[in-house]
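User: Okay, second chain of the day. Same drill as before: sequence in, structure tokens out.
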Amino acid sequence: MTLGFMSCDDYLDVTPDNRASLDSDVKVKELLTSAYPELGYGLFSFSMSDNARDKGIGHMSDMSNTEGYFWKDFTSTTQDSPSGFWDACYNCIATANQSLKYIEENKVDNKIPDNLLPFYGEALLIRAYNHFMLVNFFGKHYNPDTASEDLGVPYVTEVEDVVFKNYKRSTVQEVYDFIETDFKEGIKYIDDTSYDSPKFHMNYAASCTFISRFYLYKREWTKVVEYATEALGNNTYAKLRDLTGKYGDLGVNEQAAEYSKSTEAANFLITSKISIWFHYFQATLRYTYNAEIEDLLYKNIFLTDGKEWAQASANFGTTDPVIVKWGFFFKQSGINADVGYYYAISPDIVAEEALFNRIEANIMLRDYTSAEDDFNKYFEKRITGYDDTNKISEAKIDAHYKDNSRADSPLNPNYDLDEKQRTYLNCVIDTRRREFIYNGLRWFDIKRFNMKVIHNIDEGSPIELTENDNRKVLQIPIAAQLFGIQPNAR
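Assistant: Same drill. Structure tokens below.
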């Protein structure tokens, strides 16, 4: 809990056991600013995915990058590791629970005071979101046929009152039920006007996008459309990041700064992260993006018809179209120290995700007209010179995606698809892969569609992660196992 609370030490009194002492409404608001994970999942989830390739000896060897690429149980416990992310999420959950306890204890006539309702809602959404991220890394993907038996993660709803407390793992179904209960109550009270900088909080658009992802994984398609539409509002086009417009006129540093700004309409939730991922993404790490992936994702792209995908100003040794998404800075650990951490402002929830969630749900609902309309809105912001000759059509999707060869394996979800649904899904999942190339979201698509991943080995034979491989469920961190939390099967 110390990590979560000490970042707010300008505002909070701290008791001898480092627990925040909440004695005013203002302090609840300030405490919640520290309830967002400072450690991310981008590096290790990218390393496990089919977006990574072995570039050979001579590149930097990072432990999480290497262990992720070979699908080993991670041993690192610091930044950019599953163990670090586990701790960061549970710190945020502890912070949310501390806030909820204060709010519950300060009811008036058994009602939460109006001035505390937005923070009550935010704390519930924080608790739901962090458990959702944890269960989707450390548990199996939601399958209604097995979720009541599959092991999830501990769902923590109480403030810890002992130094060490034993937790047991809830099932995936139980975790999803708890998450749904929390966000259904919390979303009622989210109020963007309660914050000086709403995009650094679980604001309404960010909350609705998260909920749309929850229902996407749970296969409740109508609710996906409902919440994604709430997130995007009436003018979807204005919310999307304009890579063919203003970004095309910016230099690489300007692009990175613009991408993570709170004034960027596409950014719904922004957080601060400690990570090397933002600094070492392509040029340095051994197991990462290379020219092969660039050719796969950015050449002969669907709908371009000789036109180009929006280009980045950066050049990582290739004619690279990947936009630099995060600026970073180095923070010394002390005034006279020469060591410290790399920090970045990271857009964690964005408008494009809400759009892709809606497209996928409409495909499953067989509302292809709506899906095509959203596709066109998106491609207009990604393909230079996009016009009527580029517009989506079933014939174009069939020609490029009916026999999909753009992934290591076909989509293989735990539910039936007809031929048209499969073809359209091939298109949206491939496009998502390109959009979120190194955000880490590709890993969740690999899990939920039971996709095989093949990794090349420089001067060696390829290795394979099969469709239902147990290693797709990350191992519970060793420290948590030592306190009695059951490990995952291997």
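The first strand starts at residue 13 and ends at 14.

User: Thanks, on to the next one.
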